[in-house]
Write a structure and sequence with these properties.
120 residues; alpha+beta
Length: 120
């Protein structure tokens, strides 16, 4: 299953998801070949926010205020969260939500506005 990173917790920490769970990720050193940052999954949480918070504490994850606010507003369980339509799950303009997620899940009218205009 492919995961999708959607919430930047801090410079070194992020939250992703797949169809079964939230995935806590930590930034790794840039790769030697391409120099791009890599993200490593460090924990998988399929249950509820209390467990997610516990995992974040145990791993020593830094969580910025905007990410804290988003997590606090999420439903209590992963199943409830994943059942929300993406356009409501990812709030446009929220400081911690990653733009790539918004672009792929934004309402159709928003996607059309964001597309680059190419000369014919």
């Amino acid at each position: 299953m492919a995961d999708t990173q959607f919430l930047r917790l801090s410079k070194k920490w992020a939250l992703a998801y797949d169809n079964a769970q939230w995935i806590v990720q930590r930034r790794k050193a840039p790769g030697k070949k391409d120099g791009e940052c890599r993200w490593a999954a460090v924990s998988f949480v399929a249950s509820n926010k209390d467990i997610l918070w516990r995992v974040l504490r145990e791993k020593g994850a830094e969580v910025d205020p905007a990410a804290r606010e988003y997590i606090a507003a999420m439903p209590d369980t992963f199943r409830e969260w994943i059942s929300i339509p993406p356009e409501k799950r990812f709030k446009v303009g929220h400081g911690a939500i990653l733009g790539a997620v918004l672009g792929s899940h934004a309402p159709a009218s928003k996607q059309r506005q964001d597309r680059p205009k190419y000369a014919a």
